[in-house]
Amino acid sequence: MTTAYALELTGVRKVYGSGDGAVTALDGVSAGVARGTFTAVMGPSGSGKSTFLHCAAGLDRPTSGRVLLGGSEIGRLKERELTELRRTRIGFVFQAYNLLPSLNVLQNITLPLRLAGRKPDPQWLREVVDGVGIANRLEHRPAELSGGQQQRVAIARALVTRPEVVLADEPTGALDTRTGRQVLDLLRAVVEQMGQTVLMVTHDPVAASAAHGVLFLADGKLAGHLPHPTPERVAERMTHLGEW
Ligand SMILES: Nc1ncnc2c1ncn2[C@@H]1O[C@H](COP(=O)(O)OP(=O)(O)OP(=O)(O)O)[C@@H](O)[C@H]1O
């Protein structure tokens, strides 16, 4: 089934614990991430950003509500099917890169395919490797690369399966401003030139402004959407939402 949304959350509630200790991390969130867009998620600490990402990735099961990935509901999948879905239909980019130190760059990039028992499509692999600008480092180990280069490798790894969506959790959090900017430009290019879909959680208004639009969360609820964000407008919205 095709849909305009790569990812769609409908009425997603997530309650951790029970009784007096229950915490409502997400309180009926409905949001769609259109295919071929770059979306940032922002909100004060504890507003539910990580929970949103985890529910989107099938790492957390919503207490109620639905999560659709490429039009299929993931809430009903068995654990094994979810693992397979995470391997092949979702790309992950983390703050700490999470590359395997004993594998070289090419092996790191193609690892999700090997885990899924699939062979790389040589043309796509070439496009991904060239796109992230790491073609001359394929034989190197992660420890021989700069932080920015390691994050480029992680982005290539996230793209190698041609996922439905790339989920990025503070992808520039460990990088200096200039390198962070380059990684954000790359994520934008991944969307605009390679036709991929990226959803990024960030605390940084500058990072958020690299996206096409920003979803704001506050107290587990959707608190607005800002198209064509600028750092100033994002920061202003965040100030209205309370403490960062
Ligand atoms: N496993 C858990 N068990 C209990 N409560 C949890 C759990 N995970 C998150 N929470 C609570 O749910 C709420 C939302 O947390 P979440 O981590 O999604 O927020 P966040 O916006 O990502 O915060 P931050 O910006 O500080 O990382 C918080 O009150 C948090 O304490």
From TrEMBL:
Statement: the UniProt record of this protein carries the keyword Nucleotide-binding: yes
Keywords: ATP-binding, Nucleotide-binding, Transport
Organism of provenance: Amycolatopsis plumensis
Name this protein carries in UniProt: ABC transporter ATP-binding protein
Matching CDD domains: ABC_MJ0796_LolCDE_FtsE
Record-level Gene Ontology MF annotations: ATP binding
Residue span(s) of domain ABC transporter: 7-244
Any matching Pfam family: ABC_tran
PROSITE patterns found in the cross-reference section: ABC_TRANSPORTER_1 (PS00211), ABC_TRANSPORTER_2 (PS50893)
